[in-house]
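Listing S7. Sequence submitted for prediction.
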Amino acid sequence: MPDCLFCGIVAGTVPAFTVVDGPDAVAFLDVRPVFKGHVLVVPRPHVGQLGELSADLLPGFFALVQRVARAVPDALGAQGTFVAMNNVVSQSVPHLHAHVVPRTKGDGLRGFFWPRHKYASDDEAADYAARITTALG
């Protein structure tokens, strides 16, 4: 889709801190992370919401979500992850995306109020992306 931000990231025409570029999906840092290291996983083709994702893309998409959810704690010293997906409501970009958010007990995340944290610089964001990429192998 020509005006879709995430399609631009997948195509490489919009810059992003990519952590993995797979055959079915791409994962990159959220520019407004709940916590630093918050990754978005998007299917390669434009898909608006989960119900529109073709059955042939399900295994590759969710395999990448699973890989990222395993890698984030190892990469960042987190205790676990929160994995979530909005469909239409609260979906700031109308391209299916799964959030993989690093979590640590006592991190302050309560319910669905998601405070946002900024990276101090592009270098800091690039470092987080590189650490997750390394943990992905």
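Caption to Listing S7: primary sequence and predicted structure tokens for the chain studied. The helical segments are 5-11, 58-76, 122-136. The mean pLDDT is 92.
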